[in-house]
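Progress note, sequence design subtask.
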């Protein structure tokens, strides 16, 4: 959070890089992501800080057993933000869950493999 307040632009660049880190087409996807986010109105600092606070203070793992619906988990095998093991753990906790792991993909399969991501919903 301190980095965000100290150097907003650099921190946002690093965050976007983490989104695609581990993807086979990382350079192209990162360029597209930076262009679409940084060329438009940048998110407000206070909004990003509020979002980070939620991520730092929320742990909903104990609540998973309350989910009774079918769940589709879509995850990148090479995710450096939320490791694939976390998705595998969630699948074990949710009896109605189906997990699709994208090989050669980081945190944002919908950015790295949009067509394959959408096709995950075809079987539903």
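Output:
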């Amino acid at each position: 959070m301190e980095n965000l307040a100290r150097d907003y632009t650099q921190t946002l660049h690093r965050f976007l890089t983490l989104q695609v880190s581990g993807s086979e087409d990382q350079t192209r996807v990162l360029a597209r992501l930076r262009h679409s986010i940084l060329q438009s109105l940048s998110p407000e600092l206070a909004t990003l800080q509020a979002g980070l606070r939620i991520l730092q203070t929320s742990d909903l793992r104990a609540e998973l057993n309350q989910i009774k619906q079918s769940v589709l988990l879509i995850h990148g095998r090479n995710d450096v933000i939320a490791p694939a093991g976390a998705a595998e753990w969630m699948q074990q906790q949710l009896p109605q869950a189906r997990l699709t792991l994208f090989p050669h993909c980081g945190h944002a399969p919908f950015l790295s493999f949009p067509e394959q991501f959408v096709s995950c919903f075809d079987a539903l």
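The mean pLDDT is 89. Work on this subtask will continue into the next period as scheduled.
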